[in-house]
């Protein structure tokens, strides 16, 4: 099966940029962007309440490390929320779509090679 990875971001702009980069790199198949999430948390000894934007990312389980590493590398938070939850069951065709869209294909590798040559 696959996973849903939850990631919070400080703004819609950061959420859109992060979602696009995750999908473009085939680290996730799909990202739902949910603005207006109210988070209450303790940080550096203080209780905070902030509005955040939540990303719900659907990905193949074996892609989690890549998702995590990418998010850590570009996220503005010192300690970003990156939480993966295994999906117990789903429409088989949807689960297959997630697998297919996160697979590295010959077409994808060819496209990346062309992009590198242009640089």
Describe the structure in your own words:
The protein has 119 residues and is α+β, with helices and mostly antiparallel strands. Helices cover 39% and strands 35% of the residues. It has 4 helices and 4 strands; from the N terminus they run βαββαβαα. It has helices spanning 12-24, 64-74, 92-101, 106-118; strands at 2-9, 30-43, 46-60, 82-86. Strands 2-3-1-4 form a 4-stranded antiparallel sheet. β2 and β3 form a beta hairpin. The chain is globular and about 50 Å long. The N and C termini lie far apart (37 Å). The model has no long low-confidence stretch (mean pLDDT 93).
Unreliable parts: none
Overall geometry comes to globular
Q: What would you report as the Rg, rounded to the nearest angstrom? A: 16 Å
Helices, by number, come to: 4
H/E element order? EHEEHEHH
* Main pleated-sheet profile: 4 strands, antiparallel
The fraction of residues in strands falls at 35-45%
What structural class should be given to the helix and strand makeup?
alpha+beta
Q: What is this structure's SSE topology?
A:
Blueprint: E1 2-9, H1 12-24, E2 30-43, E3 46-60, H2 64-74, E4 82-86, H3 92-101, H4 106-118
Antiparallel strand pairs: 1-3, 1-4, 2-3
Which descriptors apply to this entry?
119 residues; alpha+beta; 4-stranded antiparallel β-sheet; 39% helix
Give a quick rundown of the structure.
By secondary structure, the chain is of the alpha+beta class. The protein has four helices and four strands; from the N terminus they run βαββαβαα.
């Amino acid at each position: 099966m696959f996973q849903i990875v939850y990631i919070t971001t400080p703004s819609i702009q950061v959420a859109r940029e992060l979602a696009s980069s995750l999908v473009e790199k085939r680290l996730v198949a799909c990202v739902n962007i949910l603005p207006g999430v109210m988070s209450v948390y303790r940080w550096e000894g203080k209780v905070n309440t902030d509005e955040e934007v939540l990303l719900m990312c659907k990905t193949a389980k074996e892609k989690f490390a890549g998702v995590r590493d990418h998010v850590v590398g570009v996220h503005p938070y010192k300690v970003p929320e990156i939480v993966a939850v295994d999906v117990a069951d789903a429409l088989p065709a949807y689960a297959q779509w997630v697998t297919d869209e996160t697979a590295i294909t010959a077409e994808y590798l060819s496209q990346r090679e062309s992009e590198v040559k242009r640089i």
